[in-house]
Amino acid sequence: MAAKKLTVAIAGNPNSGKTTIFNNLTGTRHKVGNWAGVTVEKKEGFVSHNGTDITFVDLPGTYSLSAYSMEEVIARRFVVEDNPDVVINVLDAANLERNLYLTMQILELGVKVILVLNMVDTAKKRGIVIDVKKLTELTGVTVVKSIGNKNKGTDEIIQAVISSCENKNTSHINLRYGDDLEKYIKKVEDILSTDKELCSKYSARWLSVKLFEKDKEILEALKKSPLESEVLDRISKVHKSIEELYDNDTESLMVEHRYGFIHGLCKELIHKSLEDRIIASDKIDMFLTNRLLGIPIFLGIMWLMFTATFTLGEIPMGWIESLFAVLADIVRATIPAGLLRDLLVNGIITGLSGIIIFLPNIMILFLFISFFEDTGYMARAAFIMDRIMHIIGLHGKSFIPLIMGFGCNVPAIMATRTLESKRDRILSILINPYISCNARLPIYILFAGAFFPNSANNVIFSIYILGICVSILSGLLFKKLFFKGESEPFIMELPPYRLPTLKGTAIHMWDKGVIFIRKIWRVVMVGAVLIWFLGNFPENIKYSRNYTGEVNNIEASYKTKIANAKKGLQEKLEQEKESIISDITNQEKSEHQEKTYIGKLGKFVVPVFKPLGFDWKNSVSLICGFVAKEIVVSTHGILFKVGEDADEGNTGLVEALRESHMTPLTAYTFMVFTLLYTPCLATVGIMKKETGGWKWTSFSIVYSFSIAWILSFIVYNVGSIAGIGLAG
Amino acid sequence: MLIIGRRILTTLDKVKANQKAVIIKLNGNGSIRKRLLEMGFTAGTEIYVKKHAPLSDPVEYIIKGYHLSLRLKEAANIQARII
Question: Can you tell me the distance from the alpha carbon of A451 to that of A725, in angstroms, rounded to the nearest whole number?
Fold first, then answer.
């Protein structure tokens, strides 16, 4: 017997507990993606119950189904075009009036609906009791009570879904828009019903209502109809007369009628036993949004989040590093030396580890973000920071991604998902890379330590400040150039504080991690393998010295020396030998780098970097730094013949740098360049994913490089002319 | 500020904390206006000014039983009568 298949859409206001119910229904049996062509998250979950397979689709949270926000268009489109068998409308019982606005819109569509009255426990505490029987009577649909975060009502919901498919569960609300308007709505409805094509998906009345509301999507759809001009003509005449009669436009009038109807409904449904009293939520807000304490508390919480993400994150990052080192060892042990092994170890495994290493940071950060969003603190954070953010053209919610950028730009850019408007999101993403991340710090420490030994801290701090300034100024510039016009309004609900479910938060965290890997592994792998290729080919390099021969000679000469030496001296001689061999090997590696494609590439692009005071060695490091900024230091180590294990504290490297052509000025220029130029591969990958394509990402790459070059040019040349920092 | 009898007609941004007002009309046009309407800012609806953010802007309001924040700039487009 074939299983019966059902598709159920879940709609509701933001903060109605919709997602918790979705999680209760589907648990881990869900998949996350994007709605076609947009960067709005789509969640689908699967449940099997007594032979029926149900697919739950979590629609974006919306306050209405008008067509002016992407989320609303998606929700409406899904209900109308994808024909779900049932639509579950989750309502916040403590906030029924506003929640019913969406309900009215859904009911007007004429689909099968089940109402889920969620958070009835909170409502009861506030003295609000809803007459469920009356609600069923007045709307004609099944109503289920639930308490999402205690997983109560889940079974009843599934039962209701299954039984709804067996009976004719359509609503019978009679929402009228006033006698005057109704006349015209009916007229237009009659005209529209002659166009069979147009009315195949929507009812004529619904179309008429939407047209009077100047609904953008329906106006578009009308264009295809021959009736367009007649209908539009009539409607505009009506708009005029309504405006004259009521001193109010048609849209407002219609919304008012809906709310009037809802108000009447609520009067019969809601029994409020307690007067508006100060609830726990308000008490908490007395501190959290307090005029004096609000900001310090917020900054403290930010600090906590930052420290946990990047300091706590170090521990699992260490495990991951070890894991990959072990993996590399296994490969080295099992596969014979050669090109394949080298590709696996230095190309593929390096690439993979470069991706997975971000997981701890991302998951911890999103643990915090989910917690803030689910408790409702996120809205308060945006509320507090909005004034400052608005001055630089951003939204209050943009603050967290910016702060996270100081640790790592990858999770920071992922965090921009919390912003509702696409414009705000893209703007926040574009300015994020100039916030200096952790990976760039070793570079600063190396160069500042080598060339500014007495003021390294201040020098590094100045770089961070420069980054912040470039971020802000770029933001203002982009706003003027690309995002002109009305900035997004700050109409934001401040939901009552709630305790989130552990399950929900954990699921959210896991989803984010999976999405991250799925989306960027290709970009990073390609980059890592490419760099590996450039660094290992051509294979047959003509060395200037016979390194192997030299090493053998040393081995041979020391062999006899050690054999003939006294016991105590033997160790010392061994060390001497190792040191000399190590020197020779380093020189060989350096020459190798120089003569492979990457060295040649470095030399080839030198003309670009010469005006900034860099030589080919710096250029090679910068090219490698494109893969991951961490590599810049170790590449310098190789090229300056100190070995690839050199880190920023390596005195040999510091000395080598000082003795090279570099001066304090070129060192500072190099730091400025590193701060600003193209972000690392992982960042590029995540940018592409979050902006929905290569357009903005390519722009960012080009812009970053240009701004890095221009500012470095200015620093270097102004400094040279002024004679600052030239002594090496 | 227009004074009609003992009632004061003003815009929402000028209503102080802990004061109550009634929405009269929404000025301007476009998506902000529509959004506000759908969130319950219809004529005759009561609105209560809860508090200002630490930096004075935005402002927290209570309307139709829920809390909402608006920037003063957006509130300036809402005609209201203090009660």
Answer: 9
